[in-house]
């Protein structure tokens, strides 16, 4: 397990938004965990025993059809938390939660988080705001998948991933990206080729290096900016929590 000087709860933006006294109260219940690629944190219809606050990992929320095809409906990185169904009353969801990008995060027993939420502490308002932002991401993903080109969808996905990782080098196969977007691998190959020819990315053997982020932001559809604007709007002064 890495040392505490390398990993801190405040590397997750939700935890960082809490006042020092609030975070200190939760700290003893937060467990640092490694989140390996492909790890299934929750199956369709399953109940979460823990909520997760990713710091360097990214979790994909996706739905798997009866024929085995799947599509991502949202992602959760260092901006959020996995487990909003816990306090929304549904307890379970039809989607799966799988680690898309390996890394670390903090987990907390679901029962303890529910107790904290039900006490109407500041974390309740914070998590409700995050849930609204997550709902925006889910709805905008549905709109994007229906109305925009694969190239635009790929730009959106790349930018959201960059925001969560804070780096320009991604380890990701075309097969996995195609699964995330719910499209054929050939479509991703063609879209990535266009972006590479335009000098925006360099792709080789499962690694994507973003060379021109500004170019991606000009090329992407409005869906990326809608999601980013909503997160910024809801959390512009998060320290008040």
TrEMBL record:
InterPro entries for the chain: cNMP-bd_dom, cNMP-bd_dom_sf, Env_Response_Regulators, HTH_CRP, RmlC-like_jellyroll, WH_DNA-bd_sf
Protein name: Transcriptional regulator, Crp/Fnr family
Keywords: DNA-binding, Transcription, Transcription regulation
Limits of the HTH crp-type domain: 148-214
Cyclic nucleotide-binding domain boundaries: 14-99
């Amino acid at each position: 397990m890495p040392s505490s000087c390398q990993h801190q709860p405040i590397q997750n933006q939700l935890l960082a938004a809490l006042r020092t006294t609030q975070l200190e109260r939760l700290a003893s219940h937060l467990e640092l965990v490694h989140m390996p690629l492909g790890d299934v944190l929750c199956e369709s219809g399953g109940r979460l025993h823990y909520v997760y606050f990713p710091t360097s990992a990214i979790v994909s929320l996706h739905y798997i059809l009866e024929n085995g095809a799947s599509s991502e409906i949202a992602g959760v990185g260092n901006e959020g938390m996995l487990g909003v169904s816990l306090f929304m009353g549904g307890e379970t969801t039809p989607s799966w939660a799988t680690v898309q990008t390996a890394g670390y995060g903090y987990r907390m027993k679901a029962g303890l988080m529910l107790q904290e939420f039900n006490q109407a502490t500041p974390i309740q308002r914070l998590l409700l705001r995050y849930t609204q932002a997550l709902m925006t991401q889910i709805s905008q993903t549905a709109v994007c998948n229906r109305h925009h080109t694969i190239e635009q969808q790929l730009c959106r996905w790349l930018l959201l991933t960059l925001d969560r990782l804070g780096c320009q080098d991604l380890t990701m196969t075309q097969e996995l990206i195609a699964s995330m977007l719910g499209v054929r691998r050939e479509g991703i190959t063609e879209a990535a080729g266009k972006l590479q020819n335009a000098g925006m990315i360099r792709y080789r053997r499962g690694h994507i290096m973003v060379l021109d982020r500004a170019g991606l932001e000009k090329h992407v559809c409005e869906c990326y900016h809608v999601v980013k604007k909503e997160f910024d709007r809801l959390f512009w002064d998060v320290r008040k929590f």
